[in-house]
Amino acid sequence: MQTAIINTTIVMPDHLIPDATIICNGGKIESFGKNLCTAGCEIYDAKGAYTGPGLIDIHTHAADLTRFYYDPYHASEYLLKHGVTDVLAATSYSRTAEMIINDIKVIKEAINSPDRAKNLIGIYMEGPYLNVNFGAGRVNHPWAPTVALERFKAVVDEAIDVAYMWAIAPERENIDEYVDYIRSKNPNARFAVGHSEAEPWQIERLIPKGLCDVTHHTNATGTLQNYPECRTACVDETAHYNDSLYTELICDKIGIHVQPYILRLVKKIKGDDKIILISDGTDTKGPVSPRGNYEGADDLNFDFEGEISGTRFTLDRACRNMMIHTGASLCQVFKYASRNPARAIGLYDRGEIRVGNKANLLLVDAEFNVKDVFFGGEKV
């Protein structure tokens, strides 16, 4: 059965199509535009809502305060209701090899149960080889010893067929052994620099090996070292300088992870094609840190050391926050939260309204409040 979404404004990457129709058939977009014939279609009246591609969250550990490795079905279903039609479940660097392997197995089982977790498509490997000085819950970091094949081999072997992105700290000793082993298993593997104090040269030398992304840009990155009258460049400046690098942004309600002025700066420097909005959801419920002014930050989580530990919002909220903090348009935030993450992980059959693409669609109002979600052309 064909489905026709009528009376909608279609959100394209760089323009809008008002008073339009989208026809879905066989789980894909069959046609879209104005004055389409809808005879024989099941009609859905959007009542003027905007229709864009389903959101793609490539970096979140949890949803609704539920970790994927505890209950991947609840987490993925909760996200789907919020318009996230594709999600990568992120692992945790603070867990042992045995725990990470078990987490991966739980997530893989859910991926292979598409009727229950149909939007869960893979894994974002946040670590394990990150800088031990950065990130929440780092007090007892189990991956502090030198990078070594005998420690990481089993983890990589378990994750290799479902991992879309591997976050690393390029300054870690012997990190090339880890990168090269992953690439020997998957020559097209993609890497992100994260939880790192790497210098530009350490990052740039890995770009030819697939490094293309910056994990939660400006968070858990190196302290700038000051020389007598100048400062050195770190991860953030390297991300700005290299046009090939995507920059993930956690865009919370009051601008704690990334200050609104910095968001506007990144938007100006990186342009519309290299920004990726993520939620970085967690289930951590530690005490609010006394070290900052977090009044009104009810969408954040904190570890038990009182440090920021991810968020409790979904990607639709991130889009709305980005619009508020930067003045970004609907076209832009749909790119940041759908087209760009799809491209970053190598998916070209989703992320924008295009004939032949998957009919994963999100209907929102002008302030990015979710009205309805379609997955494979069917209303969720």
Features:
380 residues, eight-stranded parallel β-sheet
Structural class: alpha/beta
* Count of helical stretches: 9
Enumerate the spans where pLDDT stays under 50 for 5 or more consecutive residues: none
Oligomer: single chain
Shape type: globular
- How much strand content do the residues show? 25-35%
> What does the main sheet amount to?
8 strands, mixed
* Rg from Cα: 21 Å
Total number of strands: 22
Termini separation comes to 16 Å
Give the overall average pLDDT.
94
Helix proportion: 25-40%
Structure write-up:
With 380 residues, this protein is an alpha/beta fold. Helices cover 26% and strands 27% of the residues. The mean pLDDT is 94.
Give the helix/strand layout.
Layout: E1 3-11, E2 16-25, E3 28-33, E4 42-45, E5 50-53, E6 55-60, E7 62-63, E8 66-67, H1 72-81, E9 84-90, H2 97-111, E10 120-126, H3 149-159, E11 163-168, H4 175-185, E12 191-193, H5 200-204, E13 211-214, E14 226-227, E15 230-231, H6 235-241, E16 246-250, H7 260-270, E17 275-278, E18 300-302, E19 308-311, H8 315-326, H9 330-344, E20 361-364, E21 370-375, E22 378-379
Parallel strand pairs: 1-4, 1-5, 6-9, 9-10, 10-11, 11-12, 12-13, 13-16, 16-17
Antiparallel strand pairs: 1-2, 2-3, 5-20, 7-8, 14-15, 18-19, 20-21, 21-22
